[in-house]
Write a structure and sequence with these properties.
This protein has helices spanning about 15-35, 50-70, 75-95, 105-120, 155-160. It is an all-alpha fold. Bound molecules: magnesium ion. Magnesium ion (MG) binds near residues 23, 26, 56 and 59.
């Protein structure tokens, strides 16, 4: 087996960057097809574009985590930026949707934006023992509501096994 080139998985020079751009390109391909169909999920060649988008987003997120981990990028900086940006996107979504969405739905979304804002404003949410950040479990919520860590929280298993206390 030939040795990997720089920027590839397995190299020691910015490993995973080539995979990151490859997966980002695959997301672009699916999005391009969705735009071409006017948002219809059934593509002319038979595939389901919603399913393909889900798969490629998953691939892209995996590539992001790999690049972060394999290049020892600062996880806290990235997570903090991720939270702030996610909250901003939700806020824009609510603001832009205000003229077309039913008001009750907007109120509900604004409540969620406000909740996310409080989490960010309060700094990184932590369990009383200080070992956790942004896990839905640490916030006393159902793990399925976790969006901040995309289920990559290293302490999730500890919470589920009872090794770390849940906030109630
Ligand atoms: Mg892919």
């Amino acid at each position: 087996m030939s040795s990997p080139g720089p920027y590839s998985i397995g190299s020691n020079h910015w490993p995973g960057l080539s995979k990151l751009i490859e997966e980002a390109g695959e997301v672009q391909q699916v999005v391009g097809k969705l735009i071409a169909t006017g948002g219809k999920t059934k593509h002319w060649e038979g595939s389901d574009l919603r399913e393909r988008l889900q798969e490629e987003l998953g691939d892209l997120i995996a590539a992001c985590f790999f690049v972060m981990e394999a290049n020892s990028l600062d996880e806290e900086t990235i997570r903090s930026r991720h939270q702030a940006k996610l909250m901003l996107f939700h806020r824009w979504h609510v603001e832009q949707a205000d003229s077309v969405a039913p008001s009750a739905k907007v109120d509900e979304q604004m409540d969620e934006v406000s909740r996310l804002g409080r989490l960010v404003d309060a700094g990184t949410p932590r369990n009383p023992d200080g070992t956790i950040n942004n896990c839905a479990l640490a916030c006393g919520e159902d793990v399925r509501t976790c969006q901040m860590c995309l289920n990559h929280c290293p302490d999730q298993a500890k919470f589920e096994s009872g090794l770390l206390p849940l906030k109630v």
